[in-house]
Design goal:
Blueprint lengths: L2 E7 L2 E6 L3 E5 L2 E5 L5 E3 L6 E7 L2 E2 L2 E2 H12 L7 H14 L6 H34 L4 H20 L2 E2 L4 H11 L1 H11 L7 H13 L3 E2 L9 E7 L8 E11 L2 E11 L6 E7 L2 H8 L3 H26 L5 H44 L2 H20 L12 E6 L3 E6 L10 H5 L5
Antiparallel strand pairs: 1-2, 1-14, 2-15, 3-4, 5-6, 6-11, 7-8, 9-10, 11-12, 12-13, 15-16
Length: about 425
């Protein structure tokens, strides 16, 4: 896992990232503390990039991909930071030498088999619960359960955000391209589960959507986050854009833009955490996001139960339909008041916690901006260190500041080599 933060004001951007990375193999994992997650996207212009999540993309380290892109970019510049992001996405889509068809097929197979296994496990758990409850189960009931679960999964995928325009045409191409993988996955994974033709058709549609859509509540563990920040040539103030990038199948890149924010004359400061965000959000918001969610859920459940309790205590011998109508009207009133109450709490939170911090960030000089970014990442590292969880965040913290005039300046940076022994590296930097 990773802890990263970007802090922007009108003068500069400070970015900081820990160095922990997790390697998995044979049901065990190893944590390393020397990963590089911050890079300059251009050697000539004030743009940087941070990586979190999967350190590799389609089997290639992100560091290698970024440095190949940087070499091809040379001194090319763009008016807006957004255009650097678009150019990087275009590079990923078109660089077929980096992502050969064999790797794309491997990625497709992993996605289809992996998600089909999740569906099968969901079906088996439902069957087990039914048997525990009813004592036995008939074959047609198993088929019905599988139909319902597969259908619900398909609805979630089809409702997800998709980054291709001609979706039906692309689905057809993917279906034809990876039909053999789909057929073998269907046979290997659902061999002992009776499936209707409708369920098989739905599974086929799910298999193609795996490479196109980002459904709500479903995420791939192998996904990577890419954060690009700095200044375009015509931009006075910095901005930041982030992407979730998953893989390439049939030369189609599965990605989505997750955020874009810009410092301007109205918004003078931005603080954006990435990956492990809880401690940074707690510091800024004055309350843990998990506790805030639990608190709101508890209040909502309590308020939701009040109408029935009030009616049962105050009204006697009332007809069922009249009672339900009263409860419905009371719930409407209490829910409206609850929404207003939560809105006021959010306003108080912003006024007393978030706004004062952003006001200070607005005026922070570059060195203190960097110090704040490092401290926020350190806060997450400390929280992990004093918990019983694995220390998936930690190691040296890299810190850089990007400004319009100076470009990307390293404040703190680890090297895998001794600087004194490798002066040629720094002398040749711009020629590479």
């Amino acid at each position: 896992m990773t802890a990263e933060v970007a802090i922007l004001n009108r003068e500069a951007v400070a970015i900081a990232a820990d160095s922990a990375s997790t390697g998995n193999g044979q049901s065990r994992q190893k944590i390393f503390s020397s990963a590089n997650k911050i890079f300059s996207l251009s050697k000539y212009h004030p743009v940087g990039v941070m990586i979190y999540g999967n350190a590799n993309f389609m089997g290639v380290p992100w560091e290698t991909i970024i440095k190949i892109f940087r070499k091809k970019l040379r001194d090319k510049k763009f008016d807006q930071l957004m255009q650097y992001g678009e150019e990087f996405i275009k590079f990923l889509k078109n660089e077929s030498n980096l992502f050969p068809e064999s790797e794309q097929e491997k990625y497709a197979k992993g996605c289809i088999y992996g998600y089909f296994l999740e569906i099968r496990n969901e079906v088996l758990k439902t069957i087990e619960k039914t048997i525990e409850k009813e004592g036995n189960i008939e074959v047609n009931r198993i088929e019905t359960i599988a139909d319902e679960i597969i259908s619900n999964n398909l609805k979630r995928w089809e409702a997800g955000e998709c980054n291709v325009d001609n979706k039906r045409e692309v689905e057809k191409e993917l279906s034809e391209k990876y039909n053999k993988i789909y057929e073998s996955a269907l046979k290997d994974i659902f061999e002992k589960i009776p499936l209707s033709q409708k369920a098989k058709n739905s599974l086929s549609k799910i298999a193609t959507n795996l490479f196109l859509c980002f459904p709500e509540g479903i995420s791939n563990s192998g996904i990577s986050g890419v954060v690009i920040t700095g200044f375009g040539e015509d931009e006075i103030f910095p901005s930041i854009i982030s992407y979730s990038i998953e893989g390439i199948a049939n030369n189609i890149l599965k990605y989505k833009q997750t955020n874009f924010e810009q410092v301007d004359y109205d918004k003078s400061a931005i603080i954006n955490p990435f990956a492990q965000m809880e401690m940074v959000q707690t510091f800024i918001n004055g309350i843990s996001p998990l506790f805030y969610k639990l608190y709101n859920n508890l209040i909502s459940e309590t308020i939701d139960n009040y109408p029935r309790l009030i009616i049962s205590k105050l009204v006697e011998d009332v007809e069922q339909d009249v009672e339900e109508d009263l409860i419905k009207q009371l719930k409407k009133i209490t829910n409206s008041n609850l929404r207003e109450g939560i809105k006021k709490i959010d306003e108080i939170q912003y006024r007393h916690f978030i706004e004062p911090i952003l006001k200070v960030v607005t005026f922070l000089p570059k060195n203190e901006l960097a110090e704040m970014a490092e401290s926020l990442v350190n806060l997450t590292c400390l929280r992990k260190k004093i918990s019983m969880d694995e220390e998936t965040v930690g190691g040296p913290i890299d810190v850089a500041v990007i400004s319009k005039g100076d470009g990307l300046i390293w404040i703190r940076r680890k090297h895998y080599f001794e600087r004194e022994l490798n002066q040629h590296f720094f002398m040749n930097y711009l020629n590479k």
